[in-house]
Amino acid sequence: MVDSISGMGAFQSFGLRQQVSAHNVANVNTRGFEPDRVILEEAPEKQGVRPQSVEKVRDQALEHAREMQEDEAARVQEQALRPSNTDLISELVVMQQNEAAYAASAAATRTQSDMLGHVMDMKA
Predict the structure, then answer these.
(1) CB–CB of 25/88 below 8 Å?
(2) Which helix H or strand E contains 35, and what residues bound it?
(3) DSSP string for residues in 36-76
(4) Sign of dihedral through CA atoms 113, 97, 55, 74?
(5) Vertex 31, ends 70 and 54: CA angle to 5°?
């Protein structure tokens, strides 16, 4: 039987993804902002998903340009002047995925609860 905690893990995982995505969208106009991305992994014994890490989304071209700059002050100034590299389309897609996954987890939890209720009624 599926553990009810696995459903809660999915709620927490996709809730965290939604929070991170909302933070990225809120900072879309912040100069120098680098968005974050939640990396999910399979929970032990295939009991859903859980967050593995939260990582910065790096722009490869900007990373290379930064490595070429030797002056730390120039790097700081460059970061302050460049626009955010947040991709609104990607963030909206992630938010829709989160919503669908959250709804699926809610349906699975509701079904599990209903089935447990029926089992309890049969034993009573």
Answers:
(1) yes
(2) none
(3) EEEEEEEPGGG--EEEEEEEEPP-HHHHHHHHH---HHHHH
(4) negative
(5) 85
Residues near 86 by beta carbon (within 8 Å), at least 6 away in sequence: 24, 25, 27, 28, 33, 35
Percent of the chain scoring above 90 in pLDDT:
27
Strand partners, 50: 41
- Taking the alpha carbons of 47, 50, 52, 56 in that order, is the dihedral positive or negative? positive
pTM of the predicted model, to two decimals? 0.68
| Residue 9 contacts residue 29 (beta carbons within 8 Å) | no
- Determine the residue type at 4: S
Residue among 109, 122, 101, 113 nearest 51 (CA): 101
CA distance 113 to 2: 11
- What are 6-48's pLDDT values in tens digits? 566 888 889 999 999 999 999 998 888 889 999 989 888 877 7
